[in-house]
Design brief:
Blueprint: E1 3-13, E2 17-20, H1 32-39, E3 43-46, H2 53-65, E4 73-77, H3 89-96, E5 103-106, H4 112-125, E6 131-139, H5 149-152, E7 157-168, E8 175-182, E9 190-191, H6 197-200, E10 214-215, H7 217-239, E11 248-251, H8 256-266, H9 277-280, H10 287-297, E12 306-313, E13 317-324
Parallel strand pairs: 4-5, 4-6, 11-12
Antiparallel strand pairs: 1-7, 2-3, 6-7, 8-13, 9-10, 12-13
Helix pairs in contact: 2-3, 7-8
Catalytic activity: malonyl-[ACP] + acetyl-CoA + H(+) = 3-oxobutanoyl-[ACP] + CO2 + CoA
Domain Beta-ketoacyl-[acyl-carrier-protein] synthase III C-terminal: 236-325
Main location: cytoplasm
Length: 337
Amino acid sequence: MTRSCVVEALAGWVPPLRVTNDQLPESWGVTDSWVRSRTGIGSRHRAGHGVATSDLALAAAESVLRGNDSVDALLLTTSTPDHPLPATAPSLAARLGLGPIPAFDVSAVCSGFVYALATAAGWVAAGLAERVLLVAADVYSTMLDPTDRAAGIVFGDGAGAVLLRRGEDDEPGALIGFDLGSDGGHADLIMVPAGGARHRATGRSPADGDHYFRMHGSEVFKHAITRMDGSVSTLLESLGWSVDEVDRLVGHQANARILKAVCERLGLPADRCVGNLAEVGNTGAASIPLALAQAHADGRLRPGQRVVVAAFGGGLTWGSAALVWPDLSHTQVIPHL
């Protein structure tokens, strides 16, 4: 047997402020039926004034640890760090009282959770850690342009946490395969133009709105379908799994039409594609662990099922991973849902 990374516990957390489609700004000129028909989203949660990414990450991490601080490393994946530097993970480790363990951020936008899973699996396989705490958290509300209806109806805030341990490659919960990719030639499709070294090097003040999130929706839509479909297909081929053998696909919760199209291209029945997009919207890197936690809690994920997760995000980045779902006694129902 090889050293494998095994899912031991799972938790999700969203802030209590829930914003339904009927509560969106009147200036956007949208209705509940209009938003649902285009995105599949009925509500999203907002962190609110003074609440940062590490605050959401802390709530999810505390839920998954449940007082157990025996962790060798902490990975935080986010696109909305508390500060440009330092990384947010060390301060999260300190707030959790985990001691001087290695802690660092993983930045792959909405693909961050899958990238961080692969990173954690590498640490375990290399003998660098026996147990890893992986937290995915984003507070997109802090970088959305209040006049940008397209992004405003989609994004929500949230966090998910997974506790991973060393195990055997044939036990339930073992991460048994990955596929990852990127295409930086399309970096401009999802971007915050200002705030980094590229803009600072110009010496110019940011133009109005350059510190806000920007996305070319129609192009992103096409790339998301193609890349997630391709990644899952490549992963299944490497594992020797047929599509019929996949019990559940948990995709990045970006848009219901994207998820439907991916399932159709794969030939996967729609009832095997699970998520919680309608309740929380697109929560960035947190979307997959949030969806996993809720699906496990309500019985849509059951021990022994073959599960594939797939993501797509800015960069462009994408990835997928597979496991046989374990019996998780410590999975926490997501508060406020």
